[in-house]
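Z., the sequence and structure:
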Amino acid sequence: MKKLMLLAALCGGLFAFAPVSADEVAKEEATYKKIEAKLDATVVPTIAYDEVDVTEVIKDFAKKGSITIVIDKKALESVSADDRKITLELADIKLGNALNIVIDQIGLVKSYKNGILYITTQEKAQGIVSTKTYDVRDITMRITDFPTPEIKLKAQDEGQGPQFDTPKEDPPTTDDIIEMIEGAVTADWGNTAKITVAQGQLIITAPREVHKSVANLLDQLRETK
């Protein structure tokens, strides 16, 4: 009996999800916007590097902006030793612009991952995905609210007594919601973006912009219930 109880507890843990909403996705976006705001608000009087490795330049930028910047090591391996050496002189420039200049020189781009600024290749930036669980059971659940029937009086030649029309509307199923998402949200569904269902919840693996659109769509569906 104890083994069965333990197994049930473990299974319950495996299917314990942390659903997200549009508000939570918006909070994550706010974190990224805050980083961008710091880069834009920080004006550096003088920037001067002479054959300095790009990793040291990025560390210096992170310190100046009081932000965390991570460079994808594997992406950096694709940059030749000579190209990694930065020689640059700039004056009165926004830190964000300076960062763009530096990473452009080594052929990398900015992205965001796990709440931090992430420097990687263009290809990897486009393929960066995260997995979030969306609880849609409140959308698919049938609510018994005993709606007021619509009463229509019959004409005299149709017989006596009123005619009752009770409105009936079935809520969407998870399959319906998936179809709506894949139809309304632009993404590479089946490749970089995927949807699975578990216990009435949607588990979506997709890029950042796709999650924003999905969360907003689901909140719109909730408003129509």
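The beta strands are 43-53, 69-71, 85-94, 109-113, 116-120, 130-135, 150-153, 162-165, 194-198, 201-206. The chain has nine helices and ten strands.

Let me know what you think.
H.
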